[in-house]
Design goal:
582 residues, alpha/beta, six-stranded parallel β-sheet, 24 helices, 40% helix, globular, binds adenosine-5'-diphosphate, binds ligand TZD, binds magnesium ion
Length: 582
């Protein structure tokens, strides 16, 4: 079957016919979609084989969720929909988490899933992997389509692409019933039915009045602040954004995946003074960032308001591609709706050379707070405790990332995430990819594969030991494709920390702790990669340097003080508190 599947059936060739399999492949290729992340099985096994034979890169994973996360982040990095391919029902459901994640994070992605026979599924007669997948996908994505006939493949794929990348990007579901693949049609008619999507994400130019309004609000500021979000990173308008920030002279705060749009070491970067600038600022310009939980919904104490639900004194300018984002949490005084590149270009055109710089007192106050916090952090980083602390280990990672500014940094965990975000500076745009809007565990290895495949660069993954476990089996995938991925497991023996006891005194460990001193590095060795067990910053440095020098798949198991973390990292406050203690 495998051999035969590579070519169109002989009979078909004689009559110059094509089929569903080949039309889907041709439609993807015609639109430059040449990488598929997936897991094979009925009814898409041959499709994957044929796609590979036709020059598409087909990357097989060990679990669909990881393939889906890979597709999602490939979408973020390339501005083209990342393609995930799954089998029916359970494979589809495994991939669905990633599709919902892509939609939540505004990443373009298409989940293509095979599905079982419609007639049987709809009468619930018990088909192999029976499920009404289209109905289930709908509420979790931006759009969902099903293609029933070979002649509709061109249009179906085109609609999926447009829905994924136009406006606010997101996840799209494309349902392909098993019967579609084998459908035959005249090859020439088939070729003509395909659609090369023209201008899939058209520029959305902001209204001139909205641009003027935004600059008037900014001009009135005594303590302005710019917040860069991952929408700004996605837009790939790096030069314009940098010029705008520098011309305005306004301090900026990058959200985690916007780090590096301007270097974290830039003198206007206010990250080290975050808890000072948020409550103090009087005008805040949001560039591709939502006022969601990550920014305390734009209100409450974080913003200097009297109580949790109260609004602060800030005026907001919000630049976003989604017209309904403004006023979602607090009043937006100047919404600017359009794609970030066009909006920032329009702002730059209006800003002119005489645009007032922020008052010197504000800049001095921010600089002073920054200097104080940086000095405090430097003290902590200089310590060399045994076992290693998160900070002493991450001081090494910071140096390594500084020396390799093009490397991709993948990051998940709780403490392993928060400490990395604040300690490891990014120098270039779109190099840091992490847990995103949901604070999700499990993105790690899928992101590593996609980052390596899409960019060709070295990948460094800083992983909590719990976080790593969600996708750890993909170490095999990383080894199989020989990807330059260096995983550092920050091993503190558990979720948040490893020293918790079972409150009942029973034999089971606490729900938060794992096997002590687990040897995660052996997982990488099992598949032919390099495993290193390290206890000191020097050992960690050597292991990471060697991984980067050789570009071999490497897992560094870094032993971290099991008592060094805090519950939920920086978001302890989001845990509900019990009135009655256990
Ligand atoms: P962060 O988590 O970094 O704060 P969010 O995911 O909350 O970022 O916000 C990203 C925002 O960027 C979304 O509101 C989305 O609509 C917007 N966005 C995405 N792509 C673009 C683009 N090309 N131009 C403008 N805004 C965009
Ligand atoms: N499941 C999923 C999919 N996402 C989640 N965020 C969680 C569970 C809950 N969770 C967190 O929010 S962080 C975390 C879990 C399980 C793991 C933290 O442990 P870690 O990191 O070892 O990865 P630290 O360094 O020990 O804090
Ligand atoms: Mg841990």
């Amino acid at each position: 079957m495998a051999e035969a599947a590579m070519k169109k059936p002989e009979a078909a060739e004689a009559q110059d016919l094509t089929d569903g399999f080949h039309l889907i492949i041709d439609a993807l290729k015609l639109n430059g979609l040449t990488t598929i992340y997936g897991v094979p099985g009925i009814p898409i096994t041959d499709f994957g084989r044929m796609a590979q034979a036709e020059g598409i890169r087909v990357l097989s994973f060990r679990h669909e969720q990881n393939a889906g996360y890979a597709a999602a982040i490939a979408g973020f990095l390339t501005k083209k929909p990342g393609i995930c391919l799954t089998v029916s029902a359970p494979g589809f459901l495994n991939g669905l988490t990633a599709l919902a994640h892509a939609t939540t994070n505004c990443f373009p992605m298409i989940l293509i899933s095979g599905s079982s026979e419609r007639e049987i599924v709809d009468l619930q007669q018990g088909d192999y992997e029976e499920m009404d997948q289209l109905a289930i996908a709908k509420p979790l994505c931006k759009a969902a389509y099903r293609i029933l006939h070979a002649q509709d493949i061109g249009i179906g794929v085109a609609r999926a692409i447009r829905a994924a990348v136009s406006g606010r990007p997101g996840g799209v579901y494309l349902d392909l019933p098993a019967k579609l693949f084998g459908q035959v049609m005249d090859a020439e008619k088939g070729r003509r039915s395909l659609v090369k999507v023209i201008d899939a994400a058209p520029a959305q130019i902001p209204a001139p009045a909205s641009v003027k309004r935004a600059l008037d609000v900014l001009k009135s500021a005594k303590k302005p602040l710019i917040i860069l979000g991952k929408g700004a990173a996605y837009a790939q308008a790096d030069d314009a954004i940098k010029t705008f920030v520098e011309k305005s002279g306004v301090p900026f705060l990058p959200m985690s995946m916007a780090k590096g749009l301007l270097p974290d070491t830039h003198e206007q970067c206010a990250s080290a003074a975050r808890s000072f600038v948020l409550p103090e600022a009087d005008v805040v310009v949001l560039l591709g960032a939502r006022l969601n939980w990550l920014l305390s919904q734009g209100k409450g104490k974080t913003w200097g308001a009297a109580s949790a639900k109260a609004w602060g004194r800030q005026k907001f300018v919000q630049v976003d591609i989604s017209p309904t984002e403004a006023d979602s949490n607090v009043r937006i005084d100047a919404p600017v709706v359009g794609d970030l590149g066009s909006c920032v270009a329009a702002l730059l055109k209006e800003i002119g050379p005489s645009f007032p710089k922020p008052p010197a007192e504000w800049l001095a106050a921010v600089a002073e707070r920054k200097a104080k916090n940086v000095a405090k952090m430097a003290e902590t980083l200089a310590k060399n405790p045994s076992p290693m602390s998160f900070q002493s280990a991450l001081a090494v990672v910071r140096d390594i990332v500084r020396a390799n500014p093009d490397a991709m940094l993948v990051n998940e965990g709780a403490n392993a995430l928060d400490f990395t975000r604040s300690i490891v500076d990014m120098a270039k745009p779109r190099r840091r990819i992490d847990v995103g809007t949901w604070g999700i565990m499990g993105i790690g290895m899928g992101y590593c594969v996609a980052a390596a495949v899409v960019t060709g660069q070295q990948v460094i993954a800083i992983e909590g030991d719990s976080a790593f476990g969600f996708s750890g089996m993909e170490t095999e995938t990383i080894c199989r494709y020989g990807l330059p991925v260096c995983i550092v497991v920050m091993n503190n023996n558990g979720v948040y920390r490893g020293d918790e006891k079972n409150a009942s005194g029973g034999a089971d460990p606490s729900p938060l702790v794992f096997v002590k001193d687990a040897r995660y590095e052996k997982m990488m060795e099992a598949f032919g990669g390099v495993g290193v067990h390290v206890r000191t910053p020097d050992e960690l440095r050597r292991a990471m340097e060697e991984a980067i020098r050789t570009r071999r798949p490497t897992l560094v198991n870094a032993v971290i003080d099991e008592g060094g973390g805090t519950e939920s990292g920086r978001i302890t406050n989001l845990n509900p508190t019990a009135a009655k203690k256990a």
